[in-house]
Amino acid sequence: MPGPAKKAAEEKPHHLGHRQRLRERFLNAPQSLPDYEYLELVLYQAIPRQDTKPLAKRLLAAFGGDLTRLANASDAELKSVEGAGESAIAAVRLIGEGARRLLRHRVKELPLLGSWAQLLDYLRVAQAEKPTEQFRLLFLDAKNHLIADEVQQTGTIDETPVYPREVAKRALELGAAALIVVHNHPSGDPTPSKADIAITRELVAALKALDIQLHDHLILGRDKHASFRTLGLL
C-alpha cells in the first residue's frame, strides 16, 4: 500500500502544480503569457478549486480570441459559454474595468486635444466593442482637461436617443468650456449616418448658444474610428 505522503500526492489535483508554475512565469515575465494563460490566472482568483484553463480557452474562442471583445461582452453572451457562471463573469468584468480605470486615469491627467492616441486607446477599451450603441460625453475645461466622462444614453444595436438640450444643460452644470462626444457602431463600420450628422448639427447649435464648443464627434467601429472634424463635418 502507498504511504500517506504518496497517497496525498496522488490525490492532489494535477492543475495545482501547473498553476504554481504559471504564477511564477507571470511574476517573472508577465508579458510572456498568451491571453488564454493570463485569463486562466485571472479566473483562478475567482474559481480557486477548478482547473480554469479549459474555461479560459472556451471564453476566448467564443469571442474570436479577442480579450477586449470578451471584456466588453454582455452577461448573456458570457453565460452562453459552457462553465461561465457568476464567478467567471465577475473575473472577466475585473479585466475590463481595470483596463478602463488605468487608461481613464492617464486621460484625465493630459490635455485631450494633444493626447489623441491615449484618448482613442481609452475609448476602444471603454466602448468600441459594446454590443449596443452608447452615447458618451467628455466634458472639458478651458485648458481641454477632462472634467467628467459620462455615458448619457444607451440604445439598441443601431440607434441611440440623444437630447441636445440635456447635453447643454449638463455642460452648464459642470462648467464645461468644450465637449467631445463619442458613440459606437456595433456593426463595426464607423461611417457617419444621416442621423449622426443631423444630431451633431443640433448639438453644435445648442452648445453654441451657450458659448460652449463641440471639439469633435467620434464614432467608434471595431477596428477603426471616424472623426467629424477630420471629415469636415464640423
Specify the CATH architecture of the largest domain.
3-Layer(aba) Sandwich
The whole-angstrom Rg is 22 Å
Number of domains: 2
- Tell me, briefly, the overall form: elongated
Give the structural class: alpha+beta
- The arrangement of helices and strands along the chain is HHHHHHHHEEHEHEE
Strand order of the largest sheet: 2-1-3-4-5
Poorly predicted tracts of residues: 5-11
Largest sheet geometry: 5 strands, mixed
Number of strands: 5
For this structure, what is the CATH class of the largest domain? Alpha Beta
CATH topology label of the largest domain: Cytidine Deaminase, domain 2
The mean pLDDT is: 84
Number of helices: 10
Distance between the ends: 82 Å
> What is the assigned CATH homologous superfamily of the largest domain?
Cytidine Deaminase, domain 2
Strand-residue proportion? 5-15%
Instruction: Bin the helical content.
Output: 40-55%
Provide tags for this entry.
15% strand, Cytidine Deaminase, domain 2, 2 domains, 234 residues, alpha+beta
Explain this structure to me?
- The chain has ten helices and five strands, in the order ααααααααββαβαββ.
- A hairpin with a 4-residue loop joins strand 4 (213-220) and strand 5.
- The model is unreliable at 5-11 (pLDDT under 50).
- It folds into two domains: 4-100, no CATH class; 111-227, Cytidine Deaminase, domain 2.
- By secondary structure, the chain is α+β, with helices and mostly antiparallel strands.
